[in-house]
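pipeline stage [seq->struct] | target=DUF3347 domain-containing protein | organism=Sphingobacterium zeae | residues=180
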Amino acid sequence: MKNKLKGIYITCLISLLMISCQSSHGQDVAQAQRDRLFKNYMEVKKDIQDENFDSGKAHAVQLEKEVQNFRLKGLQLDDMMRLKKVSQTMKADAASLKAAQDLTAMKASFSAVTQSLFTIMETMKCTDDALYLQYCPMEKGYWLSYDKAIENPYAASMRKCGELVKGMAKADYPEPVACH
């Protein structure tokens, strides 16, 4: 009887460890996916800033792929429902970005993707880095930046034109975060 209980106890411990490892692995995979999404976003932003349409198209393909694979996890039900609509909008905007035929269309779609991406990242609280939503009133375009200082990607002649709309950083989130 004692050996049977010991066997059950060991089986339970092993099961708990396996569940814990799978859960941790799932979080690592989700975080890696979010990192790839944001990396591709920043590559498209740099291409727009450099006015490199061909490279922007290539990076837009990768960004659209990551947006299509993006999953909303670890959210309250009301946030999940609201972000589901935002995520669908971001998928359509990413498809438009990929299909852009010129730099002007690419900029418009990039701005739309930016707004959805910021809303999702802000709600999911899935970055430890400071991140800022910025806006150029002349180009009517949004972009994300790691820095508060304005570095407008939309027009070389207006690099300092723009305004800080909103910021988010780990310090802004006193509650436990949903992404980690």
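stage status: PASS
auto-comment: The chain has one domain: 26-172. Residues 26-172 form a domain with the Four Helix Bundle (Hemerythrin (Met), subunit A) fold (CATH 1.20.120).
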